[in-house]
Amino acid sequence: MIPVLSRAQMRAFDKFAIEACHVPGMVLMENAGRGAADVISAIIDARRLKQLQGTPEEASPSVWHGPAGSPRPPSLLPPPPSGAPATLHHRATAGAQRGRPLRRDKAAASAERARSFPVRHIPSPGQPATYPLEARVVVVCGAGNNGGDGYVVARHLLARGADVHVFLTSRSEAVTGESRINLDAYVDLGGELTEMPSDTPLTPLEEALERADIVVDAIFGTGLDRPIHGHLAEVIAVINAASCQCIALDVPSGLDADSGAPLGTSVQADDTVTFGHLKIGLLTPDGARLAGNVHVVDLGVPDAPILAQVGYVAEVIRKETVRSYLQPREANTHKHAAGNVLVIAGSSGKLGAALLTARSALRSGAGLVTIGTWPDAALALQSRVVEIMTTSIEPEQLEASLEAALASRHAVAIGPGLGLDDRARAVVDHVVLRWDGLKVVDADALTLFAGRAEVLATAKGSLVLTPHPGELGRLLGRSARAIEEDRFGAIREAVRITQAIVVLKGARTIIATPDGRMFICMAGNPALATAGSGDVLTGIIAAFACSMAAECAAIAGVLIHALAADAWSLATGADRGLQASEIAEKFPGLIAALSRGIDPLAP
Ligand SMILES: NC(=O)C1=CN([C@@H]2O[C@H](COP(=O)(O)OP(=O)(O)OC[C@H]3O[C@@H](n4cnc5c(N)ncnc54)[C@H](O)[C@@H]3O)[C@@H](O)[C@H]2O)[C@@H](O)CC1
Ligand SMILES: Nc1ncnc2c1ncn2[C@@H]1O[C@H](COP(=O)(O)OP(=O)(O)O)[C@@H](O)[C@H]1O
Ligand SMILES: [K+]
């Protein structure tokens, strides 16, 4: 399980560790700062090795998370001067290339060691293979504990030979407690510090950032409790204008750790090193964009006893969890046992939606898939389908034709392209509210409950609702923007009103269940922003729901759908141009890989 905590839970976690478990706050701060220094060192080292090996920066497969359209930051480090000492890595490589034996006589080596007392740096995980770190690092510290983490980072980078300069957004006298001890330690060890309280110009910071390779943002963490204005907003603007790589500590300063929205303004980080656990605000679309790549470092305390006290808001969906839902097929399985899905979808001009949903259900392993649609649409579909069956919903004999269509189905997917007229409303009411089975409700079927979402709580059977932010906004009487600004709050409200499992789609899809749990999908990419990809998701969830609990079907469907896009992007190198029908083509291979415990995205 990868838990995700709210701001209050993370603060309670630290408090409980300090007060109930007697781990000094100083130790937590040291672990946080040292962990961050390790991540930063590894980033510097990886870039340096890449440059020494002559790999052009542009060839890096890593994703640039900066604002849309903004240039990727320039290369981190200047090329090493000619004649510069070779790194340990290079010496080892050169030796191996010259054919020097890799195994040495142990006794001779031991005798040699005893004579020469060599001092060797043995890197621990996350640390670079070589010191000194050749990087110019600016650390911008606030007056609170986030700033305290910043001094710890500064001290460790200084110890590793980096060129470090700390800027403090207040006077030193304003810094107290553990942060003050770490500030003093950094300064007393020869660290350079410039005070930058509100009445001072920001030119020294601007000049330092022009020369810097990395800026570490340690202004605010989870203590941010009001919008940022004035001087601090200007400091953040200067950081954001700098072209060097920006690494935020805990959260980008200004980001609301709960909603993921900027409070006034926010640092735009390339990487965020977060402490203890993921914060929920780092996982919203806005938060993810502002945080860049997120690294979690542990605080050196066991989680279980503390999490049992403080709880967590959500879990990240893991491939291992989905693997446990995917059972191998029995040798004597027959098509009826493999899942019988009815897709109630499509209308004139929107037949594609029905086809995408139905084909997705087949590719996900359903044994029988039937599209139930209007007579004209059913007629038009007959010439376009081979493995999929069709059945007509007769508006004049609605209930009778629906009952016939629903007989023996294990699950129903309803909504894509169905239309919003009165006959569609009658179909949706009959199936969603009165049929006693599992229904995946999407698109038009959701919109037909706008203004009356509470009626969904009275539905027979069970429901999985799959809204995008616009559809959820319609259900809750809000704008799509309002939903995006508070995705976790909105999905919880939707579950409370409807008592259904709700899947809120988008970058970082969330699944929430009526018993209060939430799951976040970290897979997927913007290639999914293409017409019909939601219909494909509806199909896979409906097919999985034939053989899994509804909640597991939603979790597995969301992850595999997202992984399909990631696999496509990995294969093509593209972030656009994916056609919805191609998503489902990847399902059988992904299901097979996950079932065997193979990472489908591993090279
Ligand atoms: N012992 C602990 O509790 C640990 C805390 N850690 C760090 O401590 C951070 C939290 O530290 P703090 O609680 O000191 O808070 P911050 O350092 O995030 O913020 C400092 C103070 O700024 C003030 N402030 C809030 N919003 C403001 C605004 N808009 N404009 C001006 N001032 C504002 C508040 O009074 C707040 O307490 C975490 O994010 C993490 O980085 C880590 O060192 C791990 C251990
Ligand atoms: N930027 C993105 N990153 C990750 N997933 C995305 C992104 N944009 C869209 N998606 C996914 O693509 C699907 C789009 O669904 P939906 O909006 O219903 O599309 P449609 O109505 O065209 O079928 C959802 O599963 C959503 O989570
Ligand atoms: K920060």
In short:
The protein is of the alpha/beta class. 42% of the residues lie in helices and 14% in strands.
List the uncertain runs: 57-104
Distance between the termini: 24 Å
- Named at the architecture level, the CATH assignment of the largest domain is 3-Layer(aba) Sandwich
Count of individual helical segments: 23
The average pLDDT is 89
Task: Please give the order of strands in the largest beta sheet.
Answer: 8-1-10-19-18-17-16-15-14-11-12-13
Question: What does the largest sheet look like?
Answer: 12 strands, mixed
- Kindly give the count of domains: 2
Description:
By secondary structure, the chain is α/β, with parallel strands linked by helices. It has 2 domains: 2-56 and 130-316, 3-Layer(aba) Sandwich (Rossmann fold); 327-595, Ribokinase (UDP-N-acetylmuramoyl-L-alanine:D-glutamate ligase, 3-Layer(aba) Sandwich). Strands 8-1-10-19-18-17-16-15-14-11-12-13 form a 12-stranded mixed beta sheet, with helices on both faces. α1 (7-19) crosses α10 (303-310). It is elongated and about 85 Å long. 48% of the residues are buried. Mean pLDDT is 89; it is low at 57-104. The structure holds ligand NAX, adenosine-5'-diphosphate and potassium ion. Adenosine-5'-diphosphate is lined by residues 468, 505-507, 509, 524-526, 528-529, 531-535, 537, 561.
Which helices and strands appear, and what pairs or packs with what?
Layout: E1 2-5, H1 7-19, H2 25-52, H3 88-97, H4 106-116, E2 136-141, H5 145-159, E3 163-168, H6 177-188, E4 192-195, H7 203-211, E5 214-218, H8 230-241, E6 245-249, E7 271-275, E8 278-279, H9 285-291, E9 293-297, H10 303-310, E10 314-316, H11 319-325, E11 340-344, H12 351-363, E12 368-373, H13 375-382, E13 389-392, H14 398-406, E14 411-414, H15 422-434, E15 438-441, H16 443-447, E16 462-465, H17 469-476, H18 480-485, H19 487-498, E17 501-504, E18 510-512, E19 518-520, H20 533-544, H21 550-572, H22 580-585, H23 587-595
Parallel strand pairs: 1-8, 2-3, 2-5, 3-4, 5-6, 6-7, 7-9, 10-19, 11-12, 11-14, 12-13, 14-15, 15-16, 16-17
Antiparallel strand pairs: 1-10, 17-18, 18-19
Helix pairs in contact: 1-10, 2-5, 5-6, 11-21, 12-20, 17-19, 20-21
Domain YjeF C-terminal: 318-594
Keywords: ATP-binding, Isomerase, Lyase, Metal-binding, NAD, NADP, Nucleotide-binding, Potassium
Cofactor: K(+); Mg(2+)
